[in-house]
Amino acid sequence: MKNIETERKFLVTSGDWKNISKGVLYKQGYLSIDPGRTVRVRLEGEKAKLTIKGKKINGSGDEFEYDIPADEASYIIEHLCLKPAVEKIRYKINYKDNVWEIDEFLGENTGLVLAEIELEFPDQHFEKPPWIGEDVTEDSKYKNANLVKSPFTKW
To answer: Which of 12, 36, 59, 65 is deepest in the core (most CB within 10 A)?
Structure first.
C-alpha cells in the first residue's frame, strides 16, 4: 500500500487571513530528521498522531499517519524526540475550493508564518489567496523537521 502526499508550501505576506479561522495548538517532535525519511510525533489539540514521511520530490512523497494516545505522544515528545520541539498554531482556511493550512510558529521559530496546500496531483491548478507569497516548497530550511536543528530565530 502506498500513500503519496503532494503539497506546496508558501511564505505568508500579511495577517489578512487571521480572523477567518480559529487556530489549534500543535506540538511536534521528531525521532528522525534524516533527509530520506522523517518520523514525527504530533499533538494536535487533544489528538495525537505518529507520521512517517519519505523524501519529497517536487512536493510529493510517501506519507503514513497513525492515531496514537495523546499521553504517549506527550511522553515521546518530551523524552525521546530531538529538541527543540516544533510548536505552532495551525489555522485551516477554505479558499476557492481548496483548504489552506497556515502555521504560525511559536518558541524558537516565532516570527515564521507558512501556508501549505495539499493537492491531489503535482500539476493541479489552484488559485492563491492574496496573502500568499513566495513558493518555498523546495527550500529545505522551511521543512518542519529542519526547524528543529536550525530554528527560524537563529537564521
So the answer is: 12
Q: Which residues contact 79 (CB under 8 A, 6 or more apart)?
A: none
Residue 65 in grid coordinates: 499517519
Residue 30 annotated among the catalytic residues of the structure:
yes
SS (H, E, C) the chain: CCCEEEEEEEEECCCCCCCCCCCEEEEEEEEECCCCEEEEEEEECCEEEEEEEECCECCEEEEEEEECCHHHHHHHHHHCCCCCCEEEEEEEEEECCEEEEEEEECHHHCCCEEEEEEECCCCCCCCCCCCEEEECCCCHHHCCCHHHHCCHHHC
Q: Choose between 90 and 5: higher pLDDT.
A: 90
Distances (CA, A) of 93 to 23, 25, 52: 10, 15, 25
- Indicate the pairing of strand 24-32 with strand 113-119: unpaired
**Full-model pTM:** 0.91
Indicate which residue of 30, 91, 95, 142 is catalytic.
Answer: 30
